[in-house]
Design a protein that fits this description.
Length: 621
């Protein structure tokens, strides 16, 4: 049983009270130096308090000492505020190590981790600490965020590890259900933890650090990852890869979904990752039924020669098919792309990256760029040792990525530019941890900047909501036309956006065959709790009607384009929100009936913009 230790001040209470009173009395800017002086002034035998100690102590003692300003106190101490400045609290969990259908030569083979992950990556370490138990991972992360000052009302649940679609369905059902159980139990666990009690988090079934075999990337005849994992699992589980305790049902999952609609930690996005060759129509529908709203998918390359050279196991056509199916299902699409793969070069990578945007079959909503780095358990080790593959130099790589970032359209968010791999695990390849900052500096030196979403997020900046401007970016995809509706400030900072898909032909999922589709509504800025008011009105974007305003424009566009139904791929925790906007529950989606002449847009300027967009749409072939 993994347990979050109780918070027991004991003899330290007077010292903590003195620190809290000093911080509450301080009226100036609370920078690191000032906080450090206050903490050192009240240091004791156990050293200085951490920020999480102060926050937990404040919550434990606030009623006893009459402290009334918890939100303000926590906000001043919040650790790594960037974690929730995109408007959601991301919680990442990993599935257990399991055989992988791929044979990619660049992929590391850490047999104590799901395929492609390394035991010293921060997220992987947290997963291993809980033996890959989904409940313990989720609840532990929620409590950690809470104790470092972050609201967790709106959770983006990110399930990584291996190829999701290759895990057996009963395991998937159990895993997702237990994630929802943890979110549903969070309020009770939070209250107990705030009162200093120990919290039982559950435990995984197996301790994977007991695996004593290794996979050597330079060995052509040695044991491989799948053999090691299969032997370990079956030897300890009576010949089974998945035991009965790790098998769920649709009925239990749907009950957990229903409970989460009103939970203190609501799932506003559920993400899984898979391979293009493991997606068909049934799989897309099943992923949606699990509650997923976004799919991470590994393109890696859009060059068949490179895919074959790296033993990827599928071609570009498979990626095209997968993208079409995901778009028909309304999913947000988070692609992975890898420069510096074996068989490619700098110029070929530039051409390949351009395909992401020039070809309407691709054009992802989000993108992770993972320059290929060499890990000693990857088969690529042999290619490096005999001279067939070498990494790009830092300068060449930074120049390549600067060229790439100049091409990224404003409707895409580049979420990462490196894998979070410790430098000691990289045999050769990029070890620059602030690579995106280096690339941004190069763009600045060129007199340009990235236009991607992440570079334009409002975060905590002040803005005037009445001065926001609606802009629409329109582009074609394999199934129709996309309208990226964005609300921006005068300084071109992004406060919120909506992705609206208007298919050209009926899609293959019966429920939404003839529907326009809202694929995403996202309001940026500091995550605002559902049941509290933030005093910094000038800086808060959430809960100010921006999402409602964007949905109104989407209704107008869909109506004028001749659609009679507007569907939304709602997350479980956003169902109430869309019901308030006139949507009704369907089987897998929520729907709002619209008719010709429906008019929902509030402002004349936005109405005119809608007419301009639709006029341009009708003029196009």
């Amino acid at each position: 049983m993994t347990t979050l230790a109780p918070f027991d001040l004991g003899t330290e209470e007077p010292r903590l009270v003195a620190v809290v009173e000093a911080l509450r009395a301080h009226t100036g800017v609370l920078d690191g130096a000032t906080l450090g002086r206050i903490l050192r002034r009240h240091a004791g035998s156990r050293g200085v308090f951490s920020k999480s100690d102060l926050i937990r102590g404040f919550r434990l003692l606030q009623h006893r000492y009459g402290w009334q300003d918890e939100q303000a106190f926590v906000r001043r101490l919040r650790m790594k505020p960037v974690r929730t400045l995109s408007g959601v609290a991301p919680v990442t969990v990993l599935t257990k190590p399991f055989p992988c259908p791929g044979r990619c030569i660049f992929c590391p083979s850490d047999v104590r981790m799901p395929k492609s992950y390394l035991s010293r990556e921060p997220g992987a370490q947290r997963a291993a600490q809980h033996a890959f138990d989904p409940y313990a991972q989720t609840l532990g992360r929620l409590l950690a965020l809470h104790h470092t000052g972050h609201p967790v009302d709106k959770v983006e649940m990110i399930i990584l590890g291996g190829t999701w679609s290759f895990y057996p369905e009963p395991y998937q059902l159990w895993f997702v259900t237990r994630c929802f159980d943890a979110m549903n139990d969070f309020a009770e666990a939070r209250a107990a933890s705030d009162h200093g009690e120990a919290i039982g988090l559950g435990h995984g079934h197996l301790a994977y650090d007991e695996i004593d075999e290794e996979v050597e990337g330079v060995s052509a005849t040695g044991v491989d990852y799948n053999q090691v994992i299969t032997r370990f699992l079956t030897a300890r589980q009576g010949g089974a890869l998945v035991i009965e305790e790790e098998q769920g049902t649709w009925e239990v999952l749907e009950a957990a979904h229903a409970r989460n609609e009103g939970a203190a930690a609501r799932c506003v996005g559920l993400v899984v990752e898979t391979r293009p060759d493991h997606l068909d129509l049934d799989e897309v529908v099943r992923i949606r039924r699990l509650g997923a709203t976004k799919v991470q998918i590994g393109y890696q390359s859009l060059d068949d020669h490179v895919l074959e050279a790296n033993h990827r196991g599928h071609d570009v056509a498979a990626t095209r098919r997968a993208m079409t199916l995901l778009r028909q299902g309304g999913f947000k699409i988070h692609a992975h792309w890898m420069p510096n793969l074996y068989g490619s070069d700098l110029e070929a990578d530039r051409v390949d990256f351009a395909r992401l945007w020039d070809d309407e079959d691709f054009r992802p909503d989000e993108l992770k760029i993972y320059p290929c780095s060499l890990i000693d358990t990857a088969e690529l080790m042999r290619y490096h040792q005999d001279g067939r593959w070498q990494p790009y130099g830092t300068d060449d790589l930074a120049e390549l990525l600067a060229d790439c970032m100049e091409q990224v359209p404003p409707y895409c968010r580049v979420t990462r530019m490196i894998r979070d791999i410790p430098g000691d695990d990289i045999v050769t390849g990029n070890k620059v941890t602030n690579l995106r900052q280096v690339v941004d500096q190069r763009l600045t030196a060129r007199g340009t900047r990235s236009r991607d979403i992440r570079a334009r997020e409002i975060r905590g900046e002040a803005f005037d909501p009445d001065a926001l401007r609606l802009e629409v970016v329109t582009y074609d995809t394999a199934i129709g036309r996309e309208h990226f509706l964005q609300l921006v400030t005068g300084k071109e900072m992004l406060c919120g956006f909506l992705r609206l898909s208007l298919p050209r032909e009926p899609v293959t999922i019966d429920e939404i065959a003839n529907s326009a589709m809202i694929r995403e509504v996202h309001v940026y800025g500091r995550l605002a709790a559902l049941d509290t008011a933030d005093g910094e009105r000038g800086r808060r974007t959430q809960h100010r009607g921006l999402g409602r305003r964007l949905v109104a424009v989407a209704v107008d566009l869909a109506s004028a384009a001749g659609f009679h139904d507007l569907a939304v791929i709602a997350a479980i925790g956003t169902r109430h929100y869309y019901r308030r906007l006139g949507f009704e529950d369907g089987l897998l989606y929520q729907h709002r009936a619209i008719g010709a002449g429906d008019h929902a847009v509030a402002t004349g300027a936005e109405e005119q913009l809608c007419h301009d967009v639709l006029r341009d749409r009708q003029a196009m072939p």
